[in-house]
Structures are given as C-alpha cells and as structure tokens.
Amino acid sequence: MKRVIFLLTLATLFLCPRLAAQESEDTAPMWGVRAAFDINIPGDWHINGGNVKMYKHGYGGTLGTVCNLYLGKGFYLEPGVSLFYDSYSYSDLGVTDAGGNIFAIDPSLYKFGLRVPVVAGYSFGIGRGAMSVFTGPELSVALAGKVRLDDNEEDFDLGLFGPNGQNRFALSWKVGIGVPLDSWFVSIDASLGVTDVYRSEVSFREHRVSVGLTKYF
C-alpha cells in the first residue's frame, strides 16, 4: 500500500510537466486548487456475523491541488494531492470511570492526513451548458488522529492507530458530477470505502460525500 501511494504521488507531481511538452497550447494540462466540504459517513461495525451502529456522521474539509490532463474527445484524467481533516462521533456510547460513573457521552474523533485521488472523467454539453462525470480511486493516509474526551482523568488510550486500532491507509472509490464555470469547477462526489478501516476482527468502512470548488490556472 505504501508503495502504491508513493508511485501515485510521483505520478501526480511529474506527469503534468512531461505531458505538457507533448501537448499543444489548447490541450495543455491545467493546474488547479481544490477545496471541498466533506460529510463523513462511517459504516456499521461488522463483527461476529452481525452489524452494530457505532458512529454518527460528521464533517470535515479537504484542500489541495489537481492537474487536469485532456485526453481528447471530451475525456480527461485528473490526479491530485490534498490534505484532509475528518471528524465524526460515536453513537449512544457512554465512557465510564473506575467507579462506573459516566463522564463522557458520544465522544468524537478526528483524523488529519493526505489523500491522492486519480479520477477519469468525461465532459459533454447539455443545452447551452456543460457537465462532467468522473470516477476513480482515492488513497488516504492518516498522519494523525485521536478520540476526543473533555475529561480524561482515567488516562484512557485515546490513540486511533495501532495493532488493534484503525489502519492509517484506506482505499475508496470516487463517483461524481461537476459543472464548469469559466475557470471554475463546481462538483459533488461520493467516496465509497473499499478497504476495512480496522485492523482487528471488527470490520467497517468509511464513506464520504463532498461538495467541491476548483479554480484552474
């Protein structure tokens, strides 16, 4: 997984300049800055043949750069690199101290990390306007994250990652639509979790819906 992320990151950083030398000015790669508002939708835990609703949805954001490579006849490829911040909370979970007293209800958690999406798209006209559809894989690596507790007098382990915790690496699949507006691109997409988040007998996937705005230069 680490090798795949490394190779995709290198492709994002070096593919655009190399192709630019081969393309005409009309089809030259376009660099862009993308920001998105994310709605995080963690799935149920799957354990011992059953499902458990463990989390509520949460919110986050993404900020990064993309490179749009025109392939001809309306098709394009767009790799990118971005930083992300995700958060969501537990559902109907009470944290108790040594005396059995509940001192935290539905604590939240957060993750901060790097994402490398590589999507392929197709642009077409609708009446006097235009629209694009796109899809492709997205690799994520969490650089930091923990559970938030207002009061941690019991010295709980608040880390997310470890042998029995969450995996820092995750693969998802993006599907979305967008509308170009001059040098801007407004989009909405869904990222469906492909790999399990937990590194134990618990299995669950993270999904996300994003509303994005891209500015090309």
Descriptive account of the structure:
With 217 residues, this protein is mainly β. It is built from 1 helix and 13 strands. The chain has one helix at residues 2-20; strands at 30-42, 45-47, 50-52, 55-56, 58-72, 75-90, 94-96, 102-105, 108-126, 129-148, 169-181, 184-193, 206-216.
Structural class of the helix and strand makeup? mainly beta
Number of strands: 13
Determine the fraction of residues in helical runs and give it as a percent range.
under 10%
The general outline is elongated
List the strand order in the largest sheet.
Answer: 1-5-6-9-10-11-12-13
Give the overall average pLDDT.
Answer: 85
Task: Give me the Rg, rounded.
Answer: 20 Å
**Termini gap:** 32 Å
Q: What's the helix count?
A: 1
Q: What are the low-pLDDT stretches, counting only 5+ consecutive residues below 50?
A: 4-25
Q: How would you characterize the largest beta sheet?
A: 8 strands, antiparallel, barrel
What is the N-to-C order of secondary-structure elements (H for helix, E for strand)? Answer: HEEEEEEEEEEEEE
Relative strand content:
over 45%
